[in-house]
């Protein structure tokens, strides 16, 4: 990330824009915060998905810039919760995840922008300006592949019987220690299988794992909306 921010050509700095930045890596977040304050007005900083939901509910910003993987709920989950609560604040995801499938998931879930952290600078400023104008911005190196990933049919990956057993128990809300006891496995083995399943599905939290597995038909009986409501209280 460069020390100096160059505003995109043809765009004057906007000083009356309220931005909310969510990132649990403090040094990275502070660097992005300084960058944004050169071009925009108020920049608030939070460090978790839960704090992000609370901050938007308390005072809705013009745009949210959020990491995806954070402590607690992910940035995508935080956005979903806010949509359920009636907040339509535009979200730009600023992340290290360069997967077009992850970008497609973020945009399909309601995101307005997707920018890679190593591109933060002029590109992030441009993304904010595009989103404020009502358009969607995806970092150019991902744009075409993200559209392709969005259009591609979602086929369920093949899991082993043991992985399927573990996934169903995770969906029931069991912890790794309980799953290990039920299946006669070590906790470490359960965690290893769970991590593999998350890698296969391209998710980074247990909530996202269960939600995506349900959408892909890998599990049944998972009621997404009641659980989302429970997490908001």
UniProtKB/TrEMBL annotation:
Q: Which Pfam families match?
A: GerE, Response_reg
Could you list this entry's UniProt keywords, alphabetically sorted. Answer: DNA-binding, Phosphoprotein, Transcription, Transcription regulation
Q: In the record, which positions carry 4-aspartylphosphate?
A: 67
The family database entries (InterPro entries) matched by this protein are listed as: CheY-like_superfamily, NreC/VraR/RcsB-like_REC, Sig_transdc_resp-reg_C-effctor, Sig_transdc_resp-reg_receiver, Tscrpt_reg_LuxR_C, WalR-like, WH-like_DNA-bd_sf
The record's listing under CDD domains reads: LuxR_C_like, REC_NarL-like
Residue ranges annotated as transmembrane are none
Domain Response regulatory: start-end pairs: 18-132
Q: Where is the HTH luxR-type domain?
A: 152-217
Q: Which GO terms describe its molecular function?
A: DNA binding
| Protein name (database record) | DNA-binding response regulator
Question: What lineage does the source organism belong to?
Answer: Bacteria, Pseudomonadati, Pseudomonadota, Gammaproteobacteria, Lysobacterales
């Amino acid at each position: 990330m460069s020390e100096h921010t160059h505003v995109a050509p043809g765009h004057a700095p906007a000083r009356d824009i309220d931005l909310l930045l969510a990132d649990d890596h403090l040094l990275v977040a502070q660097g992005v915060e300084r960058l944004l304050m050169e071009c925009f007005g108020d920049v608030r900083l939070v460090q978790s998905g839960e704090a992000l939901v609370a901050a938007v509910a308390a005072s809705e910003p013009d745009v949210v810039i959020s990491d995806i993987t954070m402590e607690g709920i992910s940035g995508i989950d935080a956005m979903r919760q806010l949509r359920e609560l009636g907040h339509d604040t535009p979200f730009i995801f600023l992340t290290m995840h360069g997967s077009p499938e992850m970008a497609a998931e973020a945009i399909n879930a309601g995101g307005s922008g997707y920018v890679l952290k190593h591109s933060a600078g002029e590109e992030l400023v441009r993304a904010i300006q595009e989103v404020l104008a009502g358009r969607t911005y995806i970092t150019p190196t991902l744009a075409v592949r993200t559209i392709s990933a969005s259009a591609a049919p979602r086929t369920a990956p093949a899991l082993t019987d043991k992985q399927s057993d573990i996934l169903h128990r995770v969906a029931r809300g069991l912890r790794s220690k309980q799953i290990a006891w039920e299946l006669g496995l070590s906790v470490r083995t359960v965690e290893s299988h769970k991590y593999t399943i998350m890698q296969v599905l391209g998710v980074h939290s247990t909530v996202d794992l269960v939600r995506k597995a349900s959408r892909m038909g890998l599990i049944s009986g998972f009621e997404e909306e009641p659980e989302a409501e429970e997490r908001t209280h």
